[in-house]
Specification:
single chain, about 170 residues, mainly alpha, three-stranded parallel sheet, 3 strands, about 50% helix, globular, Polycomb protein EED-like insertion domain-containing protein, PRC2_EED-like_ins
Length: about 170
């Protein structure tokens, strides 16, 4: 078996390139806890600085009192591992001049540190893990897919309508 601590001189996959090739990507889920997040931050620091990577959108609502003590409803892990690098994008944007700022229409990709499903992550119950994954991974993914499918269908209908008008 392999252990994360046995890895020396890790070589990351080209996650940024993959996301560029797949423009519908909206979130990156790191599913092996803190170790994976630390390595992600190490290798993709410049990507964070670009402002394209963001903290999970629902993490901004953690001030609600009913969320503060419930690991299933917030992103404590994401905040723990990504807050410092997410600040880099704000710092780099404030240092740029108006002529060099990036477009505000740049796609944003949420980075989520998911609760590890490994049995070694024993501080979380099965139910906590299941609920977290359902709420922050599966449901948002399905909603995104439905939205994208609807947009594509509307685009196809629009093209068909335009083609029909040209033929008449």
């Amino acid at each position: 078996s392999s252990l994360d601590c046995d890895i020396r001189d890790e070589i990351p996959n080209d996650i940024q390139g993959f996301c560029q090739q797949h423009p519908t990507m909206e979130r990156i889920i790191l599913s092996n806890g803190g170790t994976g997040c630390k390595l992600f931050n190490k290798h993709f620091r410049e990507w964070w600085k670009s402002g394209q990577l963001i903290l999970p959108r629902s993490s901004h609502n953690n001030n609600n009192s009913h969320n503060n003590n419930n690991n299933n409803n917030n992103h404590n892990q994401s905040l723990k591992y990504f807050s410092s690098v997410a600040k880099l994008s704000k710092q780099s944007r404030t240092k740029t001049t108006a002529s060099t700022t990036t477009s505000t229409t740049t796609r944003k990709i949420e980075c989520i540190c998911a609760l590890s499903v490994s049995p070694t992550a024993a501080q979380y119950s099965y139910k906590q893990k299941r609920d977290f994954w359902d709420e922050h991974v599966y449901k948002p993914g399905l909603l995104s897919k439905e939205r994208i499918d609807k947009e594509r269908s509307q685009e196809q209908q629009s093209r068909c309508f335009t083609t029909t008008q040209k033929q008449n």
